[in-house]
Amino acid sequence: MSEVRLFTTTTEVQANHILDLLSFEFGEEDYAIATTEVDEKNDIWQASVYLMLYEEDEIRARVARAIAEDYPDLAIEREIIPDIDWIAKSLEGLTPVRAGRFLVHGSHDRDKVRPHDLAIEIDAGQAFGTGHHGTTAGCLEMIDSVVRAKQPRNALDLGTGSGVLAIAVRKLVNVPVLATDIDPVAVRVARDNGRRNGVPAGIEWRTAPGFHSTAFAEYGPFDLIIANILARPLMKMAPQLVNHLAPGGSVILSGILASQRWKVIAAYNGAGLKHVRTLWRNGWVTIHLQ
Ligand SMILES: C[S@@+](CC[C@H](N)C(=O)[O-])C[C@H]1O[C@@H](n2cnc3c(N)ncnc32)[C@H](O)[C@@H]1O
């Protein structure tokens, strides 16, 4: 389903003021609101709200009302955010990808693996996650540094896709991992990839939308939760996700555009977590919280 960005183009001061007006209008509702610098030299900024296409008329009227008194002549522009075809994205480029100590490669590139690589073999297929996308690579790099700093006793990979992140955790530490996806095809592919990468045991693969499965109570709470989904569902599931986190545990989130970063951090601050570090890759961010 397509997303829309409604925005006004103005100065930094006015964009920040509009951000306040929009924050007041939309309050706790689940809309990402952001300011972005377009041209530093000429002080051109945009204040934006992100919504689904079907909501456009209603939200446009509310934005117009919210800014009418202070900015009666300011145009409300629009941009359709292209649907992200996750599988097509994961097929972009088939050369091996390095992230942290990991090398993610297809079966045709086995000879590219060096002795100290933590190699993960994933062929592009029916599930997202060959390592080429900035979100997957960001998660791999963050997993490497988080697990190196403190070994978890168990982990959850929510939205496992090809299984690449669950496999990465198992390549680093011999701890139980629960890997779930809303898509049963992805779960089947991920299970096969687990087998192919020599980690058939130790990862429990389950089909589950969000946290709707008894598996979470059975295997949780978790020391490490990784979720590479999208900003909106991640913000919505913040309280539930934090409920499944063991005290002192770490959360790694991705699928978040750089412009959505603060909104997601705010949602998780609200659920009791603190931001530790952000990694940027190709316009996407990966966030570590504790
Ligand atoms: C961006 S892909 C990430 C795949 C892999 N973890 C990676 O990092 O490359 C997102 C995955 O999350 C799954 N997903 C989306 N919404 C979900 C939800 N509410 N619950 C569980 N899985 C979900 C999708 O089916 C997809 O496989």
Automatic annotation (TrEMBL):
Compartmental location: Cytoplasm
Main localization, broad class: cytoplasm
Transmembrane segments: none
Key word Ribosomal protein present: yes
Entry EC no(s): 2.1.1.-
Annotated GO CC locations: cytoplasm; ribosome
GO molecular function: protein methyltransferase activity
Family listed: Belongs to the methyltransferase superfamily. PrmA family.
Name of this chain's protein: Ribosomal protein L11 methyltransferase
Lineage: Bacteria, Pseudomonadati, Pseudomonadota, Alphaproteobacteria, Hyphomicrobiales
